[in-house]
Amino acid sequence: MILLGIETSCDETSCSIIKDNIVLSNIVKTQEIHKEFGGVVPDLASKDHEKKILSIVNEAIKQSRIKLNDIDGIAVTYGSGLLGSLIVGLNFAKGLSIGLNIPLIGISHLEGHLSSGFINKEPKFPCISLIVSGGHTQIWLIESIHKFTVISNTVDDAAGEAFDKGARILGLGYPGGPEIEKMAKTGDPFKYDFPLPKVKNNIFNFSFSGLKTALLYKKNKLDSSGIYSENDLAASYQHAIIISLLDKLERVICHYKVYNVMIVGGVSANLYFREISLQLKEKYNLDIIFPDLEYCTDNAAMIAMAGYLKLLEGEKTDLSIEPNPNIIY
Fold first, then answer.
1. Tens digits of per-residue pLDDT, 214-224?
2. Which residues fall within 8 angstroms of residue 299, CB to CB, at 6 or more apart?
3. Torsion sign across C-alpha atoms 110, 113, 117, 118
4. Rounded to an integer, what distance in angstroms lies between the CA atom of residue 302 and that of residue 218?
5. What is the C-alpha separation between 114 and 289, in angstroms, rounded?
6. Which DSSP state fits 127?
7. Would you call the peptide bond into 323 cis, given omega within 30 degrees of 0 as the criterion?
8. Closest CA to 6 of 83, 87, 67
């Protein structure tokens, strides 16, 4: 079975082809136009998707060495994300579905991230999945391919957003996660202490706005007191975010007694995150799965994989489906 996947929920225009659980192509074009603004501008994003989507789909088909008529179904992100960006991908997928007379499968963006752990992997059920991205920080209990339950959420900023805002405070570029990770490589993660965020009414929930504020105060104090290493500051801030994520994950693992774990989303590409998580793996003898690096950030392969799993079960989406910027799952 051959699936074509389309992802245009934010600032990546992506198309992927998978065949029987194998990725044949995964083209991802990240928009560069937003860097000068320090964040994604929705109108510019949707216009850029419109310009690029046809050529990216053609490139994915060419690279996969299949013909258009070989495709058995089309999976597309219909939420969550930016409304204008979602419309571009969804309408393109609908047109292709009608033209080729093949099924359309609408996929939640978060469902795509959850499915990224299935690419080139053999996950075991039940499992705990930590989704860490610029817009979401959640822990899910996955009992089967079709049964996902949200256990925890963030009450304010997502972890990726905390990286972006922290990078802005440190005078770094966008996106902030890779910039902070780069600076932190030569810094001391234990040089400065940051408070471990707590949420009183739910011990599993995340909060990162306080860390951002603590970084601002710490930097202002250090700026006024004299010479210091910004590499140490970046490393310590990164460490605080990662430890906060793993602390909540550990609580969930202990409570639910589930020791198969997936960590997915853009922040899961952080190599320091992967390194520190080994401590948790050894402590509880966990089976931890990280997606391959190319499938961590927004991409169409994870959307195609989610669609592939649904189509195997005979699930299809009506062409009347509309984009939903706020859908969770």
1. 999 999 999 99
2. 7, 12, 14, 16, 26, 28, 116
3. positive
4. 39
5. 11
6. E
7. no
8. 87
